[in-house]
Design goal:
- Keywords: Transferase.
- This protein is α+β, with helices and mostly antiparallel strands.
- It has a domain of 132 residues: Aminopeptidase, CATH 3.40.630.30.
- It contains six helices and eight strands, in the order E-E-H-H-H-H-E-E-E-H-E-H-E-E.
- Strands 1-2-3-4-5-6-8-7 form an eight-stranded mixed beta sheet, sandwiched between helices.
- The radius of gyration is 16 Å and the shape is globular.
- The model has no long low-confidence stretch (mean pLDDT 95).
Length: 191
Amino acid sequence: MRHPLDRLDWPILTDRLLLRRAGPGDVDATWAFRQLPEVYEWVGAATTTYDDYRERFLREERLADLLIVELDGRVIGDLMLQIHDAWAQEEVADQAKGVQGELGWTLDPSYGGKGYATEAVRALIDVAFGSLGLRRLQADCFYDNEASWRLMERVGMRREQHTVRDSLHRTKGWLDGLSYALLAEEWPAPE
């Protein structure tokens, strides 16, 4: 079955960035920032060696959901959009297929503080609600990952859940978790 992102015309250009589908040739560029301690700290699945990272990166199901963020031809981050079915009662389940998405992002910290992550995520939200016709997007993070939840708020996502010590961090133990969401009718987000 064809992935929904395959239906789009790539790349997508923003004012300063280029978003494109990830490919096997992006292993080295993404490893360069994903192995940094300040990034490794928060990614959902961290690998400790290049070979392990390469193997995980090249999995077909991972590459299908992954986008690359470029600035002037240099890879500065990646985005993830996983499309899911919504929960539904059996009689209407066919109407809930492929209508929601989960967002994720990782940015090279040397490019932080310049609005690149906000610009890239807004472009991905435009794609999700526009070309893909999704009805709802959500994103999760540890409460301690303030940069991530601040980004969710900057792009107009609403905090829907603050859970107490339900999220297990690889080194910090049980931490609070946050869930944010946005509906298509709430987009475009306020500046």
